[in-house]
Amino acid sequence: MEQALKGMKVVDLSQVLAGPYCTMVLGDMGADVIKVEKYPLGDDTRTMGPYINEESYMYMMVNRNKRGMCVNLKTEAGLKVFYELIKDADVLVENYRPGVTKKLGIDYGTLKEINSDIIYCSISGYGQTGPYRDKGGFDIMAQGLSGLIDMTGDKEGKPAKVGIAIHDIAAAETAIQSILAAYIHRLKGGKGQYIDISLVDSGLAWTVWEAAAFFGKGEIATRNGTAHRVSAPYQGFQTKDGFILIGAGNQKLWENLCQHVLHKPEWIKEERFLTNSIRAENVEELESEIEKVLTTNTSDYWLNLLEKHGIPSGPILSYDQALGNEQIQARDMILDYEHPAGGSMKTLGFPAKFSETPGRLQKPAPLLGQHNNEILEELGYSLEDLEQLMNNNILKVNHINEKVNS
């Protein structure tokens, strides 16, 4: 089956997480993604462990389905190579600090003169405008500025970072949908364009419940542990031997929970718990009363009983347990593949299941400069040209790559 983005050419100038995750997904859907890494050490993620045969597992996780080059863009010859690459590209993704691409001669204004149809996507911490545009911004700073850290954690505890790099992934997802929208626009006869993506904006846009509470009632989101902001019970509860999750946020589920699981039918008419909104206002009392019952038996006991009566519930798993879970396994979310340096590897699967154009793991993450020769030959460079570029420190490959290709 043909993939959805077959024929799209993407030049990836990004590194670490937000940009590489974006271009990885485009590659998963069939785009020809050419990762151009900075000379001479490549993506900063290559320095992050754990390592498998000198290759970073972190790098390999978000750079599959890409071809890789390492080009010295601070040289005239390196820029010439890059400009040739851009001539027939559909998309460029970069995450330099604002202003750097202009200094390098690879900004949108410059590249638009070479390829007027280019869709140029910049991802930065704070965006290309505003008083913070020149600040360096990582995921944790974005979490702090957007209010996420302040609203995450136990009610009486310290503010906590969200467990994953949520603003990086939010920016990646925002970039993906924006690039595809711009690509569709161009296919319909429109022009190429510039896309400005901010880590802060992307994560902030996901705070819809919190914004509704603030704009509608002036409420400021606070740390609630696992509790929901407007639904109850909808959170984690302690049992005799651990913790479980219960989601009985509507009236029917609440009454079912009271009658058939907790055996507290009197709670249905209890003034403190009469409606969903009232229960949410009294969530601490509700949690205490429910846990008095749940701590009399084990997590498995309650989960089986909740399942029997159709009440959404589930365990709280550690990450290793999550990866080994039968549902995760059944959905093919763990993939096996071979890497030229790392050998037999595992990676995460494709979350979207297409009936006609499925995602595919066609290429492992490239070694540093692995596809220099292949890509430059496609651009019309001769073997003599390639040797000269190597000798003049324009192109770079690592020693593992040399062994693989020998």
From TrEMBL:
One of its GO terms (molecular function) is CoA-transferase activity. It comes from the Bacteria. The keyword Magnesium does not apply. Keywords: Transferase. The keyword NAD does not apply. InterPro entries: CoA-transferase_III_domain, CoA-Trfase_fam_III, CoA-Trfase_III_dom3_sf, CoA-Trfase_III_dom_1_sf. It holds the Pfam family CoA_transf_3. This is CoA transferase. It comes from Oceanobacillus sojae.
